[in-house]
Amino acid sequence: MSEPELAALREFIEKNLARGFIRPSSSPLSAPVLFVKKKTGDLRLCCDYRKLNAITVRNRYPLPLIPDLMERLRSATIFTKLDLRGAYNLVRIRQGDEWKTAFGTRYGHFEYTVMPFGLTNAPAVFQHFMNDIFRDLLDRFVVVYLDDILVYSTSKSSHLHHLRQVLHRLRDHHLYAKLEKYEFYQTTIDFLGHRISPAGIAMDWDKVKALVSWQAPRRVKDVQRLLGFANYYRSFIPRFATLTAPLTRLLQKKVRFQWSAPEQQAFQSLKDAFMNEKEDSELTH
């Protein structure tokens, strides 16, 4: 590890031991750790739980469908966005199962007492947790996707009432929003990769512009990444399935990867379709 990574590791261990989020472990398991860089430039410690996830029974609790959430927002004119602090760490690991989350570091062997990022069932568990808290408010004036909360209303007066209910609910459950990430009383807001306003719902171009400079895929995994990204916005792209058919064909097991003229044309047409949607959106918003 580099010096900055070692410093971040020491800080992580000291802070989370003090909080009671981790504790020394004698578990026979030991997930490796790595660091990923946040948008702010800070380092986030992540545990590689791939081996544990491979033998974990999946929790099938569903995450909300993004198109369904967007549909709820079409008539709204004012929005407030909240992002929870701590997120998955708000959920306690079941007593007796902490040893399964053990991870090894330069400074010792530890295990989580709260739910960490990286566990295959963490998103489902956390969504269930949030839905239980906001169940009677969901789709009336609030939508929740994991730790992202959006309060929406058709007027300023009703928005104040709605926002108070949401904030009181958070307070009652000892949940806290990140002050640096909240956005109050917005008429246009970016949420889950979409830009939402009284004029309608469009792609968030700050997220989508990466596609314009995307390099032509060189292997199947590159095609999977490309289509995974593009598919998130397929509802905005006319004839998406037809447009991407030559690329989708490359994902078939018995098809040999070969990037030729039809694939390149489909790739360029896909990028052009996104650019056209951006231009149409700018004319109507």
Topology (elements, then pairings):
Layout: H1 3-19, E1 22-24, E2 33-37, E3 43-47, H2 50-54, H3 66-72, E4 78-83, E5 103-105, E6 108-112, H4 122-134, E7 142-145, E8 148-153, H5 156-172, E9 183-186, E10 189-191, E11 194-197, E12 200-203, H6 205-208, H7 220-231, H8 240-248, H9 261-284
Antiparallel strand pairs: 1-6, 2-3, 4-8, 4-9, 5-6, 7-8, 10-11, 11-12
Helix pairs in contact: 8-9
Structure report:
The structure is a single chain. Helix content is 38%, strand content 18%. It is an alpha+beta fold and 285 residues long. Helix 8 packs antiparallel against helix 9. The termini are far apart. The model has no long low-confidence stretch (mean pLDDT 93). Strand 11 and strand 12 form a beta hairpin. The chain is globular and about 55 Å long. It contains nine helices and twelve strands. The strands form four sheets. The chain has a four-stranded antiparallel β-sheet with strand order 7-8-4-9. It folds into three domains: 80 residues, HIV Type 1 Reverse Transcriptase, Chain A, domain 1; 102 residues, Reverse transcriptase/Diguanylate cyclase domain (Alpha-Beta Plaits); 80 residues, 2-Layer Sandwich (Alpha-Beta Plaits). InterPro entries: DNA/RNA_pol_sf, Rev_trsase/Diguanyl_cyclase, RNA-dir_DNA_polymerase, RT_dom. GO terms for molecular function: RNA-DNA hybrid ribonuclease activity.
